[in-house]
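Figure caption, in words: inputs first, then the predicted bound structure.
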Amino acid sequence: MNVKKIWLVLVLLLSPIVSVELVLADRDEHEYEEEHGFFSRWYRSDSMLVEGEDSSRYREECGSCHFPYQPGFLPEASWRLVMSGLEEHFGENAELSDYETDFILNYLTQNAAETLKGEISRKVIWSIRSKQPPIRITETDFFKHEHDEIAPRVLYNNGEKIQFSNCDSCHTRAIQGAFNEHEIEIPGYGPWDD
Ligand code: HEC
Ligand code: HEC
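Bound structure (heme C present):
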């Protein structure tokens, strides 16, 4: 094949990919997700969804007191710290059997921020850089930066302060891994309008 022919073949091969991307970029994200859940999640690389059998055990064990945070919000070193101190876990006893602890630690480290390619995880890693690994997501510079536009008064609902650690209080589709700004509703305040 000469160079011209190689180019032609390349263009023919790539054109369907390019057009799918354009169509996707054009369509309403929600509409698309309803029709093609899996595909659009794959397409949206910033989605924090983690699926599979291991994740259901994680959700069961670590989602009973609070939202089961997606492992991609913290680096591996942070998850090791969290999992090594479960008997004194933020003032609660969240101890598990050795087997469960190993199982969940394995799940967390395999899906930790440095192993995911999504934009959120990359920003998390970058925001921690050489600092000590945090044991809270809400303590990372990434988290603080994303939430610093929320005025303190917005955080009160009927006199009660909304805790940032309850991600799903505001991110209506947090459990599906969707944290984008169009799917936020703050209790007592309403939809977030940037
Ligand atoms: C017995 C209840 C309980 C269980 C079970 C539990 N936690 Fe927690 N967890 C807490 C409390 C209480 C806090 C502090 C919440 C706050 O400050 O608003 C917390 C906070 C956290 C935070 C920090 C959240 C932030 O502020 O960024 C992480 C991370 C965390 N838990 C991980 C886990 C993991 C992993 C498991 C499962 C091994 C787990 N938790 C199981 C009670 C629990
Ligand atoms: C009090 C309501 C509230 C709570 C609770 C909350 N968030 Fe947010 N979050 C927001 C708002 C509002 C924004 C958008 C801020 C903006 O537009 O600049 C946001 C933005 C984000 C973003 C950036 C999304 C993007 O596409 O840029 C991420 C990621 C995120 N939050 C994760 C979390 C996690 C993880 C938790 C729990 C540990 C959490 N949030 C808890 C209100 C909240």
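Confidence is low (pLDDT under 50) at residues 22-45.
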